[in-house]
Give the backbone structure.
Amino acid sequence: MTGKRTVAVVPAFDEEAAIGAVVREIVEFDPAIDVVVVDDGSSDATADAAARAGATVVRLPFNLGIGGAVQTGFKYALEHGYDTVIRLDGDGQHDPAQAEAMGARARERVLDEHTYAHRARQLLALVGLGAQVEARA
């Protein structure tokens, strides 16, 4: 579908050595996917390496842990109008090429857009973003 925007959210903590390759791999897989690295209070140059590789970087002032970093990435996606979010780890353990297959499987399980929107609102409410989703709906 045209006009759909996708972002890869990549939480990272002290991943300076790996993050550049992760960002480049995502971009090589699909240049239309925007990459946002959430630097979870790293003590190394993770943020700089991600930016050099072409990612947008959101820096957290201290380590919130994986849950906080992922929530920050989802909030970024919501606030910037993305239609689809792919979450990949900053250490390279996830293969971006598998994202398409995972998305297809998820879409098979959704009965219709209403059901999907309802479930999305429930999920976002669990991570504290429900009011913002309702405001946009």
